[in-house]
Amino acid sequence: METEATTGADTGPNFWLLKAEPDSRIVKGKDVKFSVDDFEAVKTSPWEGVRNYEARNSMQKMKLGEKALFYHSNCKNPGIAAFAEILKEAYPDHTAWDSEHPYYDPKTKQDDPKWFMVDLKFVSRAQHFVPLALLRFITDSASDSPPAGLEYLGDAGVAAIKAMDLTTRGRLSVQPVSEAAWTAIQQLASTGGWDELDLNPKKKSPAKKSADTADRPARAAKTKAKAKKRKAKGSDSEDEDEDYQEEESDAEVISKTTSARRKRKAPDDYQELPPTRRRAKASSQE
DNA sequence: GCCAACGTTGGC
DNA sequence: GCCAACGTTGGC
Hints:
Layout: E1 15-20, E2 26-27, E3 30-31, H1 36-42, E4 44-46, H2 53-61, E5 67-72, E6 79-92, E7 116-131, H3 132-140, H4 154-162, E8 174-177, H5 179-191, H6 216-233, H7 244-250, H8 255-263, H9 277-283
Parallel strand pairs: 1-5
Antiparallel strand pairs: 1-8, 2-3, 4-7, 5-6, 6-7
Helix pairs in contact: 3-4, 4-5
The structure holds a DNA duplex.
């Protein structure tokens, strides 16, 4: 059974945002770089390596032909670089079983896949790259109306942008986008018009080291408010996720994390963990 | 390179 | 089941 659309639409298509890293970054000896240039060159790409439940759940809701925003993350100038669409609906992410792969997950079994991916088709570049800084500029503005030059967005477009997860949920790499936000982004990408805006106001004064982080508390408050809302209406980060709590016990999921954590803190009365679920799980293997 | 935010872990 | 601790994400 389908859960209803995360975006609130009950019948129409959903819209999505997926993040990729345009800059080289080496993980387990492999470069995980995937820029809009790479995407445009290959035209289609499996979206492998997602290892977050909420992101995965979103991917499992994606339907053939639904539209997505291609986002540049973890780079100098993050933002929306292209438009894409779903070419193939969710199927098991085989890279989880590939020990050579940067996102190898040794705990998942081929007969019980935990991670999924979709195939994405490149549609077009954003004629005007839509920088995160612009979306933040709009989101952080006290006004309900568009800034000068972007009147075409209308108040509705501004409201949609302000409601986007992108600005408040930085770590979510696959997220739903409302249709209104989709439209607003498309308008921005095709029209531009923010060259006159100072998207990076206030460089920190040398005296005040924390000047450029001064707005973070305000941001945090917004983030919290939204998180509360999600909780209230029931986030999908955990539902439909049978293994969510059980998996933790065996913990090699991301080995680096786990091994470090296992080492953490041995209180004086530390005796060697009484095996609990971990043992049960391990012995269930034949 | 720094560090706030946040998802996950795991002791209690 | 709560929540402190931890490591990672990702903007800056």
